[in-house]
Fold:
Amino acid sequence: MSLLKALQVQLTCVTVPWISQGNAQLRRLVNEIVLGEESDVLPSGQAISHFDLYLKAMNEIGADTTKINLFLHLLNGKHPLKSALAEADVVPCVSAFVEHTFSVIGGGRLHEIAACFTFGREDLIPEMFNQLVVRLEAQFPDKVSTLRYYLDRHIELDGDEHGEMGRRMVNLLCEESAAKQEEAERAALSALQSRIKLWDGIAEMISPRL
Structure:
């Protein structure tokens, strides 16, 4: 969401008075993705962000959400990101992943932010989540309904809509520049490497319990 909102801030007007700016096609792409991610719809018709939906799923299955709630509390209290991660005692592999994300945002180069968002997030999620859904259904039938809905929505939106929108956004931002295309590719690879390190760190933490 932070990558996406960084794109929205730079590609659209989010100040008052509103002034039309930038490329209309890029505005539409980023705003459509924001709509789905920030205010999706539950089966009941209630609007909810995907982050809040995930948090709801974690609470439903009894996961410990103490650290994320503390982290959010610190951010709401205007604590700097790095100190909020430290005070919430976030594990190193997660802190490193978050800090990588915000280093991309801090660079402010739109084609790199879009590449990180698209290829480091949206583009790889559907296949990954498809495997999770099959396993969850087999191991915990009717016990993880909110998590199942969260995964299904990401498979549906990211696979059918957001992934393609993200790729179009990257192409438009690269403006047929070979240099920008290479920079976007490097940003995408760096995002994927950062995610692999996150997964490896999590695997090391949980393997003794298995």
